[in-house]
Each structure stands twice: as C-alpha cells, then as structure tokens.
Design brief:
By secondary structure, this protein is mainly β. It has no helices and 14 strands. This is Ig-like domain-containing protein.
Length: 154
C-alpha cells in the first residue's frame, strides 16, 4: 500500500507524518524522546486525542573505533575507550582474543562521562610483547560493540 506524504516537521527533518495518522521517525535519536499527541477530528463531536510517550533505546557506540598508539620499552602506555549509549554500560578489554580485564599486569580504571563510560587500560612498563591488537567491548541491555586499539612497542 502506498502512503501519501502529508508534511515534514519544519524543525526536524527526521520526522514525517502521513495521511493515515502515522508519525514516522526516520532515524530515532535521543532528541526524539518525549511526548507526542495524536489528534483526530472529523467535524462531528469534539474529536479524539491520544498521548504517546516515545523512549529511544541506544546500544553502545564509539566516536573512535580504531586507535594507533606507540610506546618505548619500559614506558607507560594508556589505551582509552569511551563508550556511549544507554546505561548501565559495562566495558571489558581483550588482547589478541584473550580477556585481560582481570590480569594484574594491566591497570584498568573506569569513570562515567556525560554521554557514557570511559575505560582506560594502563600498561605501567611496556614490553615488546605488549605490541598487538587490544579490543574494547562495551555492552548494555540493547547490544554490544567493539573498538580496536593497536599498540606498537619499540
């Protein structure tokens, strides 16, 4: 069935309303959360209205997916992972496929940010074998996402 487009909100080009009463949010974002009212009137009686509350669920995401870092043997290296999305967000670290979140060789600190959670993986005294791919995985109730950091120790 074809839908005839009626109008697009002047203030938000991601929202469209259709002749059949459907309100379409093209790409839902947090800014779309809130109350929407649907009003119907056919000229007979006072008409009807319905209040709808829209909540937007946000899976984890990263503004930076791939970092390249380098260090000198014996120096400290810090890898940072900032995940955004709905709370609670949990973050874990792996190196070459092995979970390193609980290994004493690595220091991990986490803190909340304005839009999510930041995790820092610190290697206090790097070794050549610390070179490799580190994967940060962020998880919440709506999914999980990974970001890579590549460390080269010379």
């Amino acid at each position: 069935a074809s839908r005839e487009f009626v109008s697009v909100s002047v203030s938000d080009h991601d929202i469209a309303s259709w002749e059949n009463g459907t309100l379409e949010v093209i790409r839902a974002e947090r800014r779309h959360e809130g109350r929407y009212i649907c009003e119907a009137n056919n000229g007979v009686g006072s008409g009807l209205s319905k209040l709808v509350n829209l909540s937007v669920n946000e899976p984890p995401w990263f503004s930076a997916h791939n970092q390249q870092l380098s260090s000198v043997v014996g120096k400290m290296a810090t890898l940072t992972c900032e995940a955004k999305g709905d709370t609670p967000l949990t973050i874990s670290w792996a190196k070459d496929g092995v979970d390193i979140s609980s290994m004493s060789r690595y220091g991990i600190s986490e803190r909340d940010s304005d839009s999510g959670r930041v995790s820092e993986l610190v290697i206090r005294s790097t070794l050549v074998e610390d070179s490799g791919r580190y994967i940060c995985t962020a998880t919440n109730a709506h999914g999980s996402m990974t970001a890579d950091s590549h460390l080269l120790v010379q």
